[in-house]
Design goal:
Three copies of one chain form a homotrimer. By secondary structure, chain A is an alpha/beta fold. Chain A has helices at 4-17, 30-40, 53-57, 72-88, 103-113, 124-133, 150-160, 195-209, 213-232, 238-251, 254-261; strands spanning 20-24, 43-45, 62-66, 92-95, 119-123, 163-167, 171-174, 179-182. Chain A has one domain (4-261): UDP-N-acetylmuramoyl-L-alanine:D-glutamate ligase (3-Layer(aba) Sandwich), CATH 3.40.1190.20. The longest helix of chain A has 20 residues, at 213-232. Chains A, B, C: InterPro entries: Hyethyz_kinase, Ribokinase-like. Chains A, B, C: Pfam families: HK.
Amino acid sequence: MLEPSTVAHVHTRLRETSPLVQVITNYVSMDIAANLLNAAGASPAMVHDAHESGEFARIAGAVVANIGTLSDPWVDGMLAAVAQAEADGTPWILDPVAVGATTFRRDTVDRLLEHNPAVIRGNASEILAIATSAGAGRGVDADAAVEDVRSDAEALASKLGTVVAMTGATDLVTDGTRSVTITGGDPRAPMITALGCSASALVAACCAVHDDALEASASALAILSAAVEKAGEKAEGPGSLRWRLLDALSTLSADEAAAVAAR
Amino acid sequence: MLEPSTVAHVHTRLRETSPLVQVITNYVSMDIAANLLNAAGASPAMVHDAHESGEFARIAGAVVANIGTLSDPWVDGMLAAVAQAEADGTPWILDPVAVGATTFRRDTVDRLLEHNPAVIRGNASEILAIATSAGAGRGVDADAAVEDVRSDAEALASKLGTVVAMTGATDLVTDGTRSVTITGGDPRAPMITALGCSASALVAACCAVHDDALEASASALAILSAAVEKAGEKAEGPGSLRWRLLDALSTLSADEAAAVAAR
Amino acid sequence: MLEPSTVAHVHTRLRETSPLVQVITNYVSMDIAANLLNAAGASPAMVHDAHESGEFARIAGAVVANIGTLSDPWVDGMLAAVAQAEADGTPWILDPVAVGATTFRRDTVDRLLEHNPAVIRGNASEILAIATSAGAGRGVDADAAVEDVRSDAEALASKLGTVVAMTGATDLVTDGTRSVTITGGDPRAPMITALGCSASALVAACCAVHDDALEASASALAILSAAVEKAGEKAEGPGSLRWRLLDALSTLSADEAAAVAAR
């Protein structure tokens, strides 16, 4: 369902246009998310405070709101940015890190969801928690797997009119009608902290250069899977997997990215 | 005094149980501390704000409070988390970064110490500063060495009823009665920024899986020393030492970890 | 105009005296800026909050104020630190990240500039934006190149009585009267996120050990160029360029650093 030529197209557009992506993200992911966007050809900008996040969103090609290390000023900054993005028709991506863990996270996600994200990118437990809260899921499970949450993800996407990009050993991207799975990567990838947050940032970058959010999200995950897999060939652990991922991403060809979709 | 079999046991438990460690730490250490915990088998969560830090501490196996980049909201978040940890009997670790440098740091450490940390992990200057402030040390010295501060550290541990883990070229772990020294590592390790902060996080992870805080702390430092030493064999500077450390930690065997204790 | 012997002198002084540099910088750059200073022989301290930033500035050899991820509490902390630095005659460096992008950034830079920075380190677009705002530049251009902004940079340096260090494919350092260009580095260096922020931190470290701010700034950029170039010989992308840069910086000889000035 994901055409290899679409992935190749998105990959090439990223490098040709270097979209400006406003990434409001947690402290842990700042370094890796910015470096990963740079390696992929995009232009990251971590502008989070309400004094300027809305103003900056006007010039951004896409916006990320990631709740990993939350506090009130950051919630205000995220809301200002995504409200502006919504008003301008700029795609924005929600990364609901550990949304099931605390009341503060659940409440913040509820407020953010009022502004119609183009994509929700999370792991199976996070997607299940949101789906259940939205009346489209079947409970909470901290160790949920992508395949077990597929129907919840599809129901959530339909209900909210958004794309859900759920990552794990296999990735699932769905808009409720169309669903795409992506395989690849490396079993050691979960040891790279904030790789999921960085995936959300890359999804945003691809949404900035390609209007179909399902295709853009799936292409982002295909590009990332291809690069992780290439990096894994010579990596000896999570430390070398990380820097080799950045090297691989910066030198990845459109054909290598597209090959993941052809599986 | 530190049995090799204890280190091997703690090392194995870390990987088998993947304890959830709440790390309230400074901005500089976020990336390396999280990646180091992941490589060692633990599960890091950087949840710092008072809106949720106490609630989150209820599900954490251990908590770290690190004062490296301090501000009022973070002090509030640390106090909420460590108060909850104290109430639940969850071990928490104090990392008093540069406590001697400013009034704000000294005052904050005084407030945190009221909540009975299981372990204080710092360098010799930091331990000496706390010991002196607590009436158990002999002055302040920004360039203090572990061996010169041994008696101050033992007196501090006795007075507060805590474990003191003092790191340097040689590490000393003491509860005032029992004292263990750990040798190993690499002379270039101090060039890896926030490696001490990451050591505190690993001490917390080990305290989450082993009840004896002295043995847990010493095992954490033995595991780290073994991995740094292994990484140093091929490292050409602090950049490669860092990623090789993560690789080494993720592939370290229980025997390799235990060997440090057998010296 | 930049004597190789000056670069060698500054390089050696860095390692001999390990100056304490207070780096108030954005979240993205925390890790790399601290590690880069450590690798170069300096001693970084990220102390940002107004509760302690002024007090800490008294013991720092130099201070950096970087506006990359701005918010009100950080502005207060920067102002407290640079006011103390100004009062003590301690050199401080302004890094005006993306100053042209928002009102908040322009206003903050105006307030910081009242405290007489020793050096302003930025890219061509940032320098042009400040010069234009100060009545010494010819407009705003997000894609400005160093060579095109040379006269604006010199006019800005003269008008403010400061050193302007403008980095790009070629670097220009000027105090309005004397101007130095530095070539070298690697074309992939812009893919290392926050390398410019880290350059500002290294400029600060060199200003802490050498009184002539123009020579100190140019020496910092020469040292960095030499290390990046050395790292680039074996790097296969931005991931390996980054860790190889830290390795190269930690083992760079005074002769290798000086060679860049001799070009």
